[in-house]
Q: What sequence folds into this?
């Protein structure tokens, strides 16, 4: 239960988290039905050992690393990885241009330091008299601003061939009918999540995402057209 009734990132994120978790649990159960199959898989255990002890060598002794001993452990770890590389990344990445594309919202650099009241008394007085003018005079030049806008545009752009969570593939990705059926259920969960997000964004009672001057929260909408939009959760990891 969320303390904030409509916190869009959390509300919409929980829909996708639940869909990902159910899909991963169904998939893992097909191939790792019990703890013994997880613990005896040398490649799986080697992957996790390398992740902790090599990939994060400086943190390998921390007590918060989850164990990898049961199917539940494996499903939890994979769910977290898929969430971070898909929905979480989308929430952080694809909303950059609508905010940062207008450079005064998020300038990449400032060309003047705030004046010191003791060493630069005249500049400090001017700053206090008109802080807005001081801010504009400190903004980056046109060349720096346009370069920054181009970078943010590139980061925020959906590719025409981007794949999204729950999308089908042109050719079967596995011959296991049970795995295919589980993926179809996942795709249905994702579609329902998108429909729910669209209804929420159209609900005028939700002031955090609907109303005058308020953009709908589409960062976790599971699909998107190409280009710069606030929508789309890429299918960054496949299992």
A:
């Amino acid at each position: 239960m969320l303390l904030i009734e409509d916190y869009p990132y959390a509300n919409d994120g929980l829909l996708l988290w639940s869909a990902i978790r159910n899909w991963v649990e169904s998939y893992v159960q097909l191939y790792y039905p019990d703890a013994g199959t997880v613990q005896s898989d040398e490649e799986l255990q080697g992957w996790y050992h390398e992740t902790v002890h090599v990939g994060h060598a400086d943190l390998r002794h921390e007590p918060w690393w989850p164990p990898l001993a049961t199917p539940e452990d494996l499903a939890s770890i994979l769910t977290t990885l898929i969430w971070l590389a898909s929905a979480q990344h989308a929430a952080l990445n694809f909303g950059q241009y609508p905010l940062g594309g207008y450079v005064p919202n998020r300038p990449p650099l400032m060309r003047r330091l705030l004046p010191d009241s003791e060493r630069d008394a005249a500049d400090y007085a001017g700053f206090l008299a008109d802080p807005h003018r001081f801010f504009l005079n400190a903004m980056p030049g046109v060349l720096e601003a346009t370069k920054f806008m181009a970078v943010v545009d590139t980061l925020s752009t959906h590719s025409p061939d981007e794949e999204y969570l729950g999308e089908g593939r042109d050719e079967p990705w596995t011959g296991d009918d049970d795995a295919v059926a589980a993926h179809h259920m996942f795709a249905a969960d994702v579609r329902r999540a998108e429909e729910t997000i669209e209804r929420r964004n159209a609900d005028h009672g939700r002031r955090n995402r609907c109303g005058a001057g308020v953009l709908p929260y589409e960062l976790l909408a599971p699909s998107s057209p190409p280009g710069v939009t606030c929508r789309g959760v890429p299918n960054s990891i496949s299992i």
Residues 21-53+65-228 form a domain with the Lipoxygenase-1; domain 5 fold (CATH 1.20.245.10). The first strand starts at residue 157 and ends at 158. The mean pLDDT is 90.
